[in-house]
Structures are given as C-alpha cells and as structure tokens.
C-alpha cells in the first residue's frame, strides 16, 4: 500500500512544482498591469545585426528557462531609456511582420526593430522621433554589379516580409520588367537564399548589408542612388502615454552624445553576428562540426527547458487523461459523450494547429496574455490527455473485476477504491504505453519552437541563422534528442524491472 501512495504523491508534487515554475516564470516575463507597472515590455525582431540579433557567444544571461541574449544598437538604446525612466526592461521577439500586430494587441509597450515611420504605419501605431538614418542597398553575389533598380531587369529579388524594403521592391517591380519578388520572414534567410542561388539579389538597409557583406566575402552591396534616407524610430500602441517621456530621453541622449557613442559602438566595427565559411562546393555536402563548437553550450541550454516541458505535460496529461477516462467508464451518458467528443476532436486535428490556436486565440478570447511556454504546456496537456484517456481506460478495465467487487462489498467508497486499488494497478499495467507517450511528447516539444520558445531545435536554428549553416546545428540537435530518448528508454526499463520484482 505504501508504495502506491508514493506513486500518487510523486505525480501530484511534480504537477504542483511544475505549474508554479511555469507560472512564476511567465509572470516574471510579463508586464505588470498598466497601473503600477514596473517593467516595460519591448518586442523586436532579432534578425537584424547590428540593430538586434542573437549573441550566441558569451555574455549570456540565463534566467533559468529562457535565454536572453538579444543584443545590438536598439537593445542598448532601449536599456538606457528604460533605466532613465525607472523601469525594468523585458524583451520579447517575433518576426518583423508580427511586431505591429503585437502592439495593436497590447502585447508589448513598444517596438524597437530599426522600424521606419511611414504614413500607413502611422495610421495604426505611434512613433517616437527618429534616432538613426539608413539607406537601401542591393545585395548580390560578388561580381553581379547590380547598382541601380534598372539593373534588376528579369531578376529574382528577395526582401523581408512586411518591411519598407518590400514596399520599395514592389515599386521597383512596377517600373522594371520581369522582376520576381520573394518575401521571407527573416533577413538571414534572405541572405541565405542569395548564397544558395535561389534569388539573384535582395534589398537590404546599408547598415545591415554592410555587416552581412563583411561576414560573407562572396557578397557585395551597392547603395541605391536615388534612394533618400529612411529613419528608425520607436513604435508604440496608438495613443500610448509613453511617447512623450521616450522622446524627451531620446532627445537628451542625442544632445549629450550617448547616442553617438552607441552608433560608434555598433556601426563602426564588424558586428555581423559571426564570421562565415564560404558556401560548400555545389553537389557536395561538407560537414564541419568545428564551425559550431563555440555555439554548442548555447544549444545545450535548450535541454532543461525541453525536459521540464515534457515532464510537466506528461504529468498533467496523465492527470487530465485519468479524469477523462473516469468520465468515460462512470456510465453517466452525457459525461461519456462529452469525454468521447473531446477525445475525438483532440485526436482528430493536428497538434501544431492546436498549439497555434491556443497561443494566438487565448488573449483574444479570454483577455489573458498567455505566454508561449504556458500555451505549450496547456496544449500538450489537452492533447496528450485525449490520447492517455484511452490508454488509461483500457488499463482500468483490465484490472480484475473481483477486486472492485471485493472493495465495494467491504463498503469502500467508489472514489477511494479507484484511487487506492484500481488506479495504481492500472498505471502499472500501462507503464510501457506511458513511456511511449513521454517519448512522443519529448520529440513533439520541438513544435513549441514555432511560437518562439527557445528550446533545443530553436537554439539550433538560431545558431544556423547566425552562421548561415544548416546541417551541423540540426544534426547536433537531432543527436541531443536521440540521447535524451535513449536515456529515457533505459530509465523506463529499469523502473519496469523494479516494479515487476516488487510484485
Ligand atoms: N527599416 C525597415 C522597415 O521599417 C526594415 C526594418 C527591419 N527590421 C528588422 N528587425 N528586421 O521596414
């Protein structure tokens, strides 16, 4: 009997501790309520060195679960602003085309992402004064000699989705014949497409193009002559009360030379994330893992998050699955019907779709700004509960009927009999199925990378994007998953053996 209690207790303890970690963590990441808030939330698109990018080497701040290593010109300005205004600063990320929607949904207090004020944008959001100016350039493989819009005749042209570069490219395409546009989510993806020859050129701001060209000696860039400079400003939700105080401090920073110092710090050196080795010869795949050696700790730090995520989803999924399975076998028609309908919906739709719905729809439906991590755990719990409910139902029904009859005849109440007699045996029976479920969840945890959680896969992608190499980081991430799954399998067989011996 003692042993069985220990089982149930462990599950409850894991659930409670896990939930408090996640909630505590998300709260620390979330802005306090607008009244009496002490933290400003900024959202940026960290694909834009030297404005904002992931620093995968050194200087990391690891706050337990999430890596905060976004650095750059904008980040330094934001930190100074927050400090001078007496706020703590918290940084969130999204692709560039998600920044304005994030402001409109009040998910952040401001955006700094080298964003240019345009009349269309000003209809939906407010801007600060301009803090830096830049011009557009044409980036292309060395020797292409693409200097002005007319040279782009019949070319495939890449731009970042949602930027003014995309608009400018569209304008050029109206005048110059045969231009094919390709819109990508991130600037490093645009650069990668040039390097792999899928596009001929791209339109990129000069300050950014310079860094990429320095890091990639096989690229060149030319400033578009007629182009007038466009500026970067801070963006706020329409009507935000922060515009004034931000402008004041920005002006101070201009006047007292703080801004000029930051300009020198970030724009006068080679700040493009990392040096890049040249493109591998066509037709051959040369793997060189030494290229990612310095970034391995960065990737490894995704492991605790992945493990916590898995453990929590399995535990909560087990609890939820048990409840569902009881609803199914209780014999009360409407309850059985609801539980069955639930299971069929969650098994009948893709997990990735459920994840996106929970993450993006929750704030609109409930007003609660669910964090990516919370959305992940919630979705995985709901989904795996559906699968587990069937397994547990089978496990319960496999327990010898005589036992429940004996317990009932001794006057033990139904729920106590379930909790004390039937469930522990059912769990033991379904242990192999639970291990399978856990392994599945561990691997599926990679899906939360799509909503911005920096777990193993996402860390590998960040390293890949910074270095323009893809296979090595991905293969390394694959190895980590494999080792974790193997470890789990071994642990599970040991546990099973012990349980069998204790019988
Ligand atoms: N200045 C351009 C714009 O406002 C491009 C900014 C892109 N920023 C980024 N973090 N990717 O459209």
Automatic annotation (TrEMBL):
One function term, GO molecular function aspect: ligand-gated monoatomic ion channel activity
What Gene3D superfamilies does the record point to? MetI-like, Periplasmic binding protein-like II
Sorted alphabetically, the keyword list is: Amino-acid transport, Cell membrane, Membrane, Signal, Transmembrane, Transmembrane helix, Transport
Which GO BP terms, alphabetically? amino acid transport
Query: Organism's domain of life?
Result: Bacteria
Fetch the InterPro entries from UniProt. AA_ABC_transptr_permease_3TM (IPR010065), ArtM/GltK/GlnP/TcyL/YhdX-like (IPR043429), Iontro_rcpt_C (IPR001320), MetI-like (IPR000515), MetI-like_sf (IPR035906), SBP_3_CS (IPR018313), Solute-binding_3/MltF_N (IPR001638)
The record's Gene Ontology cellular component field reads: ATP-binding cassette (ABC) transporter complex
Name the Pfam families for this protein.
Answer: BPD_transp_1, SBP_bac_3
Recorded hits in SMART domains, A to Z, give:
PBPb (SM00062), PBPe (SM00079)
> Sorted alphabetically, which PROSITE patterns does this protein's record hold?
ABC_TM1, SBP_BACTERIAL_3
| TM helices/strands, residue ranges | 305-327, 474-495
Where does the record say this protein resides?
A: Cell membrane
Q: Any idea where the ABC transmembrane type-1 domain is?
A: 303-492
The annotated topology with respect to the bilayer is: Multi-pass membrane protein
Give the UniProt family note. Belongs to the binding-protein-dependent transport system permease family. HisMQ subfamily.
What protein am I looking at? Polar amino acid ABC transporter permease
Origin species, per record, is Nostoc punctiforme NIES-2108
